[in-house]
Amino acid sequence: MTTARDTAWLQLRDVRVRFGTADVEPVVSIDELRLEKGEFLGLAGESGAGKTTIGLTILGLTRYAGAQVSGSIRLAGEELLSMPKRRLRQLRGSTMTLVPQNPAAAFNPVLPVGVTVRRALRLHGCTRAEARRRAEAGLERVGLPAAHLARHPHQLSGGQLQRVAIALASALGTRLLIADEPTSSLDVRTQAQICTLLTELRAEHGTAVLFISHDLALLAKLCDRIAVLHRGRVIEDRPAADLVTAPRAERTRQLLAAAPRLGGLPVSGARDGHGEGHDGEDREGADSGCDDGCDGCDDGCDDGCDDGCDDGKNGRDDEEAADGA
Ligand SMILES: Nc1ncnc2c1ncn2[C@@H]1O[C@H](COP(=O)(O)OP(=O)(O)OP(=O)(O)O)[C@@H](O)[C@H]1O
C-alpha cells in the first residue's frame, strides 16, 4: 500500500556514502530525508558533518570523488542512484541545480562566465538568441549588470559568482536548488538579496531548496524545516520554528548557542539594489553552482561548441570540469 511516507517528491532512504572501501565508516548515513515541492529544507550541522556530501550525492557528483553510495534517492518517482549518466545530466541543470560552496571552482577560469551560462541554457533547449536573452535577464535579476557576463571568473567576487549561479538556476526554472553555504561569506545586504531571490524562485517555479548552512538563525528565518546532521546522521528534523525554539538534541542546542543572531535578516521584500551593479561590494570566496547546469559535454555531445564564437574559443568548456570529467 502506498502511504504518504512513500510519496515525498525528493526522498533519501538508507543512503550511505563512503569514501573508500565497504569496511570504512560511512561519512553519511541517512535513514530518511524528505523534501516536498516548493519546500525549503535547511541542512545544518558542524563542519564535517556531511552536509556538502549529501548535496553532491543527490546530484550524483560524489562519484567523481570516488565515493561509494548505496541506498535510494528518488526524485519525482525516479531513482537517481541507478539512473543512466545521460539522464542524470539532463536533470542536473534543468531540474536540479547546485550553488556550490566554492563557486570559483565551478566556472572554467579561461572562459567568460557568460559562455558557461549560455552553454548551460543551450544544453537545456534554448536557441542561441534565447540563451543570450535569458542570461542577460537573469543577471540583471540578481542585481548584476549584464556586462558582467563578459568577465572571467577571477574578475568577479565569490558573491557575484554565486549570484551568477542563481541567475542560471532561475533562467533554467530549476525545481530543486541545492544551495551550499550560499551566503556564508556575504555581507548582510547581499545575503538578504540571495534569500529573496530564492523565495522568488519558489514563487515562480515551485522550486524546492536544500539550503546548507551553519547558520541556524538564517535557516530558521528562511526554511520550512531544518534537519540537523551530526557525523553524517540526521539527529533532528523538524519544522524550523519548533527546532529553534525547543531543540531536542544537545547538538542542536550547541549549534543554536553558537548562532550569531536570531532574526534581523530581511528575507523578503529586500529588493533594494536589484538591477544595480554591485561591483566590488563583496570580495569573498564562495562559488556558483554551474556544476550542474553545465554538464553534458563529457560524453561527447559537446554542443557547447557553437557557442564558442562568443569568445573565439573552441568547444572545451566548464561543463567538463564541473562534471568531474
Ligand atoms: N572526496 C573526499 N574524500 C574523502 N573524504 C571526504 C571527501 N569529501 C568529504 N569527505 C569527508 O566527508 C566528511 C563530510 O564532509 P562534508 O564536506 O560533507 O562536510 P560538511 O558538513 O559539508 O562540512 P563543512 O561545513 O565544513 O563544509 C568529512 O569528514 C570529510 O573529510
Strand adjacency order, main sheet: 6-7-8-3-9-10
Intertermini distance = 42 Å
Instruction: Show unreliable segments.
Output: 263-325
Q: What is the top-level CATH class? A: Alpha Beta
Please tally the β strands and state the result. 10
Can you count the helices?
A: 11
Q: What radius of gyration results from the CA coordinates?
A: 19 Å
Mean of all residue-level pLDDT scores: 79
Ligand names: adenosine-5'-triphosphate
Could you name the CATH topology? Answer: Rossmann fold
Q: Give the helix proportion (percent range).
A: 25-40%
N-to-C order of helices and strands: EEEHEEHEHHHEHEHEEHHHH
From the helix content, strand content and strand pairing, which structural class follows? alpha/beta
Count of discrete structural domains: 1
Characterize the biggest β-sheet. Answer: 6 strands, mixed
CATH architecture: 3-Layer(aba) Sandwich
> What is the strand content?
15-25%
Q: What form results from the Cα inertia axes?
A: globular
CATH homologous superfamily caption = P-loop containing nucleotide triphosphate hydrolases
